[in-house]
Amino acid sequence: SPGCSPKQRQEPSQGVEIGEFEADPAVWGKKYPDHYDTYLQNNMTARTEYGGSDKYSKLEREPLLKTLFSGYGFSKEYTEDRGHTYSLEDIRMIDPARKSAGTCITCKTANFKELYNKYGESYYTQPITHLLDEAKHPIACIDCHDPKTNALVITRPALKEAFARQGKDITKATRNEMRSLVCAQCHVEYYFQTGTKKLTFPWDKGFRADDILQYYQELGFTDWEHADAKTPMLKAQHPDYELNQNSTHQRNGVSCSDCHMPYVRIGTSKISSHWMTSPLRYISEACGTCHRQSEDYLKERILYTQRRVYDQLIKGEQVVAGAIEAISSASKLPTVNAAKLTEARSLHRQAQWYLDFISAENSMGFHNPQEALRLLSESQRLAGESRIRALEALSGASLPPLPSPGPAPGLTSTQEDKSPKQ
Amino acid sequence: SPGCSPKQRQEPSQGVEIGEFEADPAVWGKKYPDHYDTYLQNNMTARTEYGGSDKYSKLEREPLLKTLFSGYGFSKEYTEDRGHTYSLEDIRMIDPARKSAGTCITCKTANFKELYNKYGESYYTQPITHLLDEAKHPIACIDCHDPKTNALVITRPALKEAFARQGKDITKATRNEMRSLVCAQCHVEYYFQTGTKKLTFPWDKGFRADDILQYYQELGFTDWEHADAKTPMLKAQHPDYELNQNSTHQRNGVSCSDCHMPYVRIGTSKISSHWMTSPLRYISEACGTCHRQSEDYLKERILYTQRRVYDQLIKGEQVVAGAIEAISSASKLPTVNAAKLTEARSLHRQAQWYLDFISAENSMGFHNPQEALRLLSESQRLAGESRIRALEALSGASLPPLPSPGPAPGLTSTQEDKSPKQ
Amino acid sequence: MSGKRKWKWNWPWHWWQYGILSVIVLIGIGFTIGRQPLKGLAYALDKPELCILCHVMRPHYESWYHSAHRNMVCNECHTPHNFVGKYFTKARAGIVDTWVYFIGPMPAQFRAKPHTVEILQDNCIRCHTEVISRIGDTRHNGGTYCFSCHRDVPHGIQTGIGPDPRELRQ
Ligand SMILES: [Ca+2]
Ligand SMILES: [Ca+2]
C-alpha cells in the first residue's frame, strides 16, 4: 500500500533563484518541494481537546467570556486560531471593528517585508483595508528565511527593537535561539503605541505576566473600558513565547520548532516539518524522540496539565465575572463608596489580566504548567478581593485588610528564578 | 588522604541471626554494617531552603499559622521534622496536649511490632506515656524489613486495611511499589476513628485532597473547633504519598526510595543509602541517576517549583486568616445572618483543608507541582468566598451567587486522570 | 621576603635526578594499576567486553547492548576516527579513568566530558551523513547535539548507578 512505502525524496532544485521580496510559497516550493508539501499540510484542520485548528467559537465554549470582554470586540466574536496558511483569510473574515489599525497586517502576510520596505513605519497608521488589498499571501517562507541563504532571519522590527531596548543584539542569537525567536516575531503579547500605533512588545521589565502588568501600569496603558464595570482593562494576546520562558522545556534548550516543526523522514533523509500545528496531531514525531514513553502516556501528561489549567481557568472566569457583576451593581448605587469602588476596579483589572494571560496563551498551560497555575491562583485571589471591595462599597460595612504574613523569610519571591548552567 | 580513597566495603556478617522482634538497629547493623552506617547519618541535621532536618519552629517562620490553628495544639508548637533516628526523642519532647492517644506510637518506634503483638488493637487506647516507656528504639530496620529474609514488608495494619477496603491485596505489590509503600505506612494523611482511636487512612474515595475532603464530609469528621471562628476544622498531616500520586515522577515509576534512598557506592559495590533526608543534601546521587543536567540546574528546578508554591501558600494563609477574622467578628454581632455565617464557616473549613494539605505535605510542592498549585488556587478562591459570606452575614447586603460557567464542555474534570500504559 | 625564598624550587636539576624521579613515579603508577594490569590494557583494544572489566561501566554496557547500536562498538562513538586522535583519546581516558578507579575521587555519576561530547557528535554525523544531509550538523552556530533529542541513543536516560524503574516493575 502507498502508506507503507517511504515518501520519495524530491531533490531540491538548484536552479531556482528566489527574489528578495518573494512572498509566494509556491515559488520557494520549486526549490524546496518537500518543505512546501509539509507547509501545505497547514490547510488540514482538526480539533484537539483544548486546541487544534478547528475554527470554533470560544464564546460558545466559554460563555462567560462575553461578560469578561463586554464592550470590546472579543465579546462578539472570538474564535480558535488555525494554521498559518489561513492567516489572511481569517483576518479578512472578522468584524471590521476588530481591525483597528494597519499594524494588524504585521503578523498576517508574507508581503510584509515588501510593504515595510515600501511604506516604512507609516504603514502602522494606514487603513487596514488598503494594506489587505496589497497582501496576497498568508504567512510563508520569507517571514522566517533569507531568500538568498535560506538562513533563519528576524523580519519583524518590533522584536529587534524589544531586544535592543534590553541591550541585547538579536543578530547574535544562536541557532537554537533562532528556532524559537522566529516564532517570537508573532506569538507574543503586544500593544500599539498610543497615537503612532507602532507595534511594541512590553518586555522592558521582563517576560512574566507580573512584569508586563507592571510595565502597563507605569505606562497607564488601557485597551478598552469595560462596558459594565467601567474598569480600564488590558487584553492579553497569545503570550506563547513569554509563558514558555523558564519552563522545564525551555530551560533544557527545547525550542518551539522542536515540538511544532519536528523532523520527519522523507525518503532517506529527514527535514523539518513545516506543518506547524498542535503536537497532539503528531505526538510520536514531536515528542517521541526525546521521550520514549508511549503516545498514550504523553498525551495523558499533556491532558493532566491542561485539565488542571482549564479547571482553574473556568473557575477563575466565574470569580472575575462575579467581580464585574458586583462592581457594576455597586456603581449604580448613589450612596456608593467611591474610593472602595476604585479599589475594586483596580483589583478587577489585575485579576482579569492574569486570567486572560493564560486564556489567550495557546497551550492551555502546557508551555509552562507551574507558571500557568500560579497565575490562575493570583487571578482568583485578586478577583475575590475585588468582589469584597465592591460589597464594601455597596454595603458601607467593611473587613479589615488582609493580615500581613509577618517577617517573610524572603523566600516567596518568584523574581529569583536564575538561569544556572546545565 | 582518607577522603580520596573509596570507602572500604564491609562484608555482611553471615553468622548474625536477627530475632523476630529485634528493634535495635545496632543488632541488624552487625549483619549489615554499611547499611547501619548510612542509617546513622540520619543524625546529621541541616536546613534546606524549605525543608531539611533542622528543628526550627514553623510558627516563627509563618506567624499566621498561629491564627489558622487557634484552639489546637499546632498553634502553640509546630516544628519542622528531622531524621528517623529522632522520632522517639521528638515525640517525647512535645507538649503533652498533642499526644492524644496511644495510636501516636504507631509511626514512632521500631518496638511497634512487639507492642502490637502484645496488645493487639487495644494499644490504640492505651495512655501514650505508658507505651513510650516501652518504646526503646526510634524508627529502624524492623519497620520495613523482614528479620529473616530482609525482604520489604508492610508492618503497619492501617495501610493493609486501607488497601483491603479498596479491594487491593497489598501482598501482591511489586518490588517497585514496595519501594514507596513502606513509606506509605507513615508518610500519609490519617485520622483516629472516634471512640476506638483506631488509626485509619481516609482513602476510600481516592487519594486527591478533594476525595479525602469528601470522605471526611460524609463521615462528619472534625479534628477540632476553631477557637475564633468556631468552624469545625480538619487538620492535614504529611500527605506525602497522596500528593505524589499521578505526578510526573510517580507515573514514570519513580519511587520514594529512588530519591530519598539513592544508591551510593561503598567501595566497589553499591547499596541503598539509609540516610533518608532532603535530596537537596545529595542531589547528585538522588537525581543524577536519571538526570544528566548539572546539580545547579536540578537544584534550581526544585526551587522554581518551591518558590511558586511557597508564594501562593503564604498568600493563601493571608486570605484564610482574613476569613477567620471576618467570621469571628461577624459572629460577635447579635444581628448577624446565621445562615450566611454557616456558609462562611463551611467555606473556611474547605479552604483551610486545601491550604493545609500543601502546608503539611513535606516537599513544598515538589512531589507534584501541578497538583500543589491547583489546590492552592482552590484554597484562595474558597477563602475569598468565605470572606464574602461573612461580610454578607455582617452587613445584611449581599452579592449574587457566582455565575455558572454555562454548558461546560465536560473538560474541566480532574477526575479523568487515567493511568495509561507507558 | 625570606618566606618566599624558602619555597623557591632549586632549578636546574641534573638529568639523572629527573630520571630517578620519573622511574619512581612510573613504578608508583605501575604498582597501583598493576594490581589488575588487564584493566589498564582495556584501553588499547576495542572490545566492549573489556570495558566492563571495570564493573562501573556495566550500566553503560548493558544499555548499549540492548540498543540498536549493539553492532557498533563503544569506540565507534567514543573515540575520534583518525589514528592519532584515536590513540591519544584512548591513552588520555585510560590514564584518567584508571586513576579515578583505583585512587579516586570516584564521582557519584559519570558524565561524558566536554571533549567526549564533541567526539560523539562527530561520530553521529560520520555514520548518519545521509539522513542529516538536508538539516546539516545541528550543533553548528550554537545548536543542539544529536543526543539532546535522541536522548536514549544508545544508553537510555538511565546510566547512573540507581535501578531503572522500568526494570523494577515486577
Ligand atoms: Ca489553534
Ligand atoms: Ca524535615
From TrEMBL, chain C:
Keyword Ribonucleoprotein appears in the UniProt entry: no
Gene3D superfamilies named in the record: Di-heme elbow motif domain
Compartments (UniProt record): Cell membrane
Residue ranges crossing the lipid bilayer per the database entry: 15-33
Pfam families: Cytochrom_NNT
Keyword Transmembrane helix in annotation: yes
Keywords: Cell membrane, Electron transport, Heme, Iron, Membrane, Metal-binding, Transmembrane, Transmembrane helix, Transport
The NapC/NirT cytochrome c N-terminal domain, residue ranges: 21-155
PANTHER family the record matches: CYTOCHROME C-TYPE PROTEIN, CYTOCHROME C-TYPE PROTEIN NAPC
Family: Belongs to the NapC/NirT/NrfH family.
UniProt name for this protein: NapC/NirT family cytochrome c
Source species of the chain: Heliobacterium chlorum
